[in-house]
């Protein structure tokens, strides 16, 4: 579902001004920043799904504010509303302090000059206030944002992001443009969304039990090392470290979830509540299950030969224990169980997953056609289509009724490229490397005497150490937590 922002056009007090603003919008370009006033300020900021808000306090008579408006609008256009280039993350708003109704509101936020820009979590603005002298406020003043570029740079610094003014809206036009491999690039958002959604479902349905915990820990280890999104790797690593504490071990089987219920596995900006690559043309189609497939494929192409069997069993167990669609998990598990020889090449595992997905596609082609439950814009196909990977097709396919003669080397090459390189991490952060982890752990060691806490050696740790096969990273990380916690901060 797309983020619902209840107010998308400027709202002013009085019906005449509403009409004026509508007319103005027709004549001029639409305003993207949401205009707030004392009556809707709290409700809009309370309801927004965005994790961050910018409030511009201005006065309509102020010439500098009028000149600033096009700059501010450029940024609002990128973030505000479901059709924005990067929807759902930041809400840009403005308050006209020259309107009597807003006098108290502007006072509460210590507006001393126009325009004043404040940044913070939307909830902190609700019934909130701000004082420049106040320390430790989550609301911060944006000092130098005279131009759209400067404002976006400031935002990028806060969010560790790399948004650009030139970013264009992602059009999910796979069907129209099936040969465009670039479409997959934005799927990293959906993988993050799927990871966070999966974790949310696991918690909501109290699925962590003594008999499923080991399988979840193994899956987390796989994510720590091979998730394409850095913030999910980081979030999962931190979760793994604190798993026993967060889970309140003794309460697992009683269904309690301890502190873990508040944990955001891919960081505080995810989930965002919408899908990009996996957005269906109807609300109920695609979304999570599509995101989960893309996550699994992107994991498969990242594992080494030596990890392939463990990655296979980890994914099979994860789906079996935690994918709440009964038919899907049963069917997938049957496919898993039919594998008799352990994988010792990642290529075989990658191709197995591709084939398994195609088997599901082929089954669903028939089911969806008879029940008319398909997404008309995204019918199930045997994948990849020839337009996307001509070389995957060993021979030119003249007769559609004959089985495809796949060139498996080419399919493998294609999958590695598609779910590997092409599916890039859009966050420009430094990579989480083994070296960095080692340094972090050393840092933690040097400060151990001051702020170390003893982490109980619980079942999760034993399981984690016993299954240290996903590269050095997860293993190293988990083992170093035997006697101490690392610092919370990663930077
Ligand atoms: C493990 C698993 C098992 C499932 N089993 C069932 C089931 O038994 N019954 C059921 O009704 N639904 C099942 N689903 C859901 C179903 O497969 C689809 O995810 C859902 O119908 C949404 O389909 P979609 O059009 O978004 O494409 P999806 O099938 O979700 O695919 C997502 C994207 O992956 C790419 N893709 C497609 N095929 C392949 C392939 N072979 N290899 C690599 N990439 C590919 C395409 O870009 C596609 O857009 C399962 C989902 C998962 C994750």
How would you portray this structure in words?
The protein is mainly alpha-helical and 491 residues long. Helices cover 45% and strands 5% of the residues. The chain has 18 helices and 5 strands. The chain has helices at residues 15-27, 41-47, 63-79, 103-108, 122-125, 148-159, 187-204, 213-226, 230-247, 288-300, 308-322, 326-337, 346-371, 408-421, 434-446, 448-451, 459-466, 471-479; strands spanning 34-36, 52-58, 90-96, 116-120, 140-141. Strands 1-3-2-4-5 form a 5-stranded mixed β-sheet, with helices on both faces. α3 (63-79) links the parallel β2 (52-58) and β3. α8 (213-226) crosses α17, α11 runs antiparallel to α12 (326-337) and α15 packs parallel to α18. The longest helix is centred in the last third of the chain and has 26 residues, at 346-371. The structure holds flavin-adenine dinucleotide. Flavin-adenine dinucleotide binds next to α10, α12 and α13.
């Amino acid at each position: 579902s797309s983020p619902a922002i209840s107010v998308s056009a400027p709202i002013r007090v009085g019906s005449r001004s509403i009409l004026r603003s509508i007319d103005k919008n027709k004549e001029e370009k639409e305003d993207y920043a949401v205009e707030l006033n004392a009556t809707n300020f709290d409700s809009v900021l309370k309801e927004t799904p965005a994790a961050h808000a910018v409030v511009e306090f201005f006065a309509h008579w102020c010439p500098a504010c009028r000149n600033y408006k096009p700059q501010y609008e450029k940024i609002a256009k990128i973030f505000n509303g479901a059709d924005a280039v990067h929807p759902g993350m930041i809400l840009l708003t403005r308050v006209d302090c020259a309107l009597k109704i807003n006098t108290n509101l502007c006072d509460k936020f210590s507006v001393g000059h126009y325009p004043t820009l404040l940044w913070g979590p939307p909830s902190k603005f609700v019934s909130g206030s701000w004082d420049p002298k106040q320390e430790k406020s989550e609301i911060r003043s944006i000092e130098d944002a005279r131009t759209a570029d400067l404002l976006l740079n400031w935002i990028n610094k806060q969010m560790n992001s790399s948004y650009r003014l030139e970013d264009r809206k992602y059009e999910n036009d796979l069907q129209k443009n099936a040969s465009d491999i670039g479409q997959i690039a934005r799927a990293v958002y959906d993988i993050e969304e799927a990871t966070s959604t999966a974790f949310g479902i696991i918690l909501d349905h109290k699925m962590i039990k003594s008999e499923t915990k080991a399988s979840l820990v193994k899956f987390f280890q796989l994510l720590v090392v091979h998730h394409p999104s850095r913030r999910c790797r980081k979030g999962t690593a931190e979760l793994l470290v604190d798993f026993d504490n967060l889970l309140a071990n003794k309460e697992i089987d009683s269904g309690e979830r301890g502190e873990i219920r508040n944990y955001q596995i891919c960081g505080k900006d995810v989930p965002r509540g919408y899908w990009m690559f996996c957005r269906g043309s109807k609300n109920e189609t695609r979304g999570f299950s599509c995101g989960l497939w893309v996550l699994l494929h992107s994991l498969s192409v990242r594992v080494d030969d030596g990890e392939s069997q463990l990655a296979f069993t980890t994914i099979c167990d994860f789906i079996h224990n935690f994918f709440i669609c009964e038919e899907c998990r049963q069917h997938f598990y049957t496919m898993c169980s039919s594998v008799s020889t352990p994988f010792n090449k990642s290529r075989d595992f990658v191709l197995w997953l591709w084939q398994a997905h195609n088997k599901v596609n082929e089954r669903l082609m028939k089911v969806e056609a008879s029940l008319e439950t398909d997404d008309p814009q995204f019918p199930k196909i045997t994948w990849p289509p020839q337009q996307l990977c001509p070389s995957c097709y060993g021979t030119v396919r003249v007769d559609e009724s004959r089985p495809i003669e796949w060139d498996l080397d080419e399919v493998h090459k294609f999958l590695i490229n598609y779910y590997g390189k092409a599916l890039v991490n859009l966050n420009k952060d430094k990579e989480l490397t083994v070296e960095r982890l080692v340094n972090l752990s050393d840092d933690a060691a040097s400060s151990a005497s001051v702020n170390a806490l003893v982490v109980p050696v619980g079942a999760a740790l034993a399981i984690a150490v016993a299954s240290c096969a996903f590269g050095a990273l997860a293993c190293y990380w988990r083992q170093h937590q035997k006697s101490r916690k690392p610092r919370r901060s990663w930077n």
